[in-house]
Amino acid sequence: MPQLTNRRAVITGAGSGIGASIARAYAAEGARLVLADRNAASLAETAITCRNLGAEVFECLADVGTVEGAQASVYRCVEHFGGIDILVNNAGMLTQARCVDLSIEMWNDMLRVDLTSVFVASQRALPHMLAQRWGRIINVASQLGIKGGAELTHYAAAKAGVIGFTKSLALEVAKDNVLVNAIAPGPIETPLVGGISAEWKRAKRRTAPGPLRPGR
Length: 216
Ligand SMILES: NC(=O)c1ccc[n+]([C@@H]2O[C@H](COP(=O)([O-])OP(=O)(O)OC[C@H]3O[C@@H](n4cnc5c(N)ncnc54)[C@H](O)[C@@H]3O)[C@@H](O)[C@H]2O)c1
Fold this sequence. Notes:
By secondary structure, this protein is of the alpha/beta class. The protein contains seven helices and six strands. Nicotinamide-adenine-dinucleotide (NAD) binds next to α1.
């Protein structure tokens, strides 16, 4: 039995990597989808794949780094499907710089895209979830939000913020059957990590548990 039959789900950052995989998995499980991304071509590609899996899909071209963009996919879901059951706050960006070199623009961009968007979309979805006494919010944080990462102070701060936001909101709304969780993946070779230096990745690989392989 598909697990998400007729569930109305929003997935941000659905054009690539983890978000695209979640979208395909949700489509295969019978969810109705609003997929959001700022990249029109990759968004369309994921949408086609999900439709081929039998899902009803609406695309939402939006930059979650703005309030309008962060709320757009939730509003589209309510408009097309009459409500929202599941929100996956997955869209994220990653840049690398030493703290001494970080501009205030880089810091603010990171917080807007990786943290503030999570608050905005969740806040817009909550009234619908609370009214129907059913909702699931899944925020994609990162192990770096727990462990930290050199030259990633802005990213780690944003993801630590996602974890704190998630835990606090979970305490606030679990009694209303709205469950809020975060996942904190380790390194996955997606386009996101394309901007990270080879040297950083080598050093990171050495800290990961597992059998020694060439290149570690
Ligand atoms: N890849 C990893 O190693 C890793 C590890 C831990 C956490 N994460 C987190 O997982 C999430 C997904 O990352 P991924 O690895 O799949 O990356 P990815 O680059 O493959 O996919 C991210 C998607 O988000 C979209 N996006 C980025 N900024 C956006 C914005 N402002 N508005 C709308 N869409 C935007 C991109 O266009 C892209 O389609 C991110 O939140 C990332 O921080 C990734």
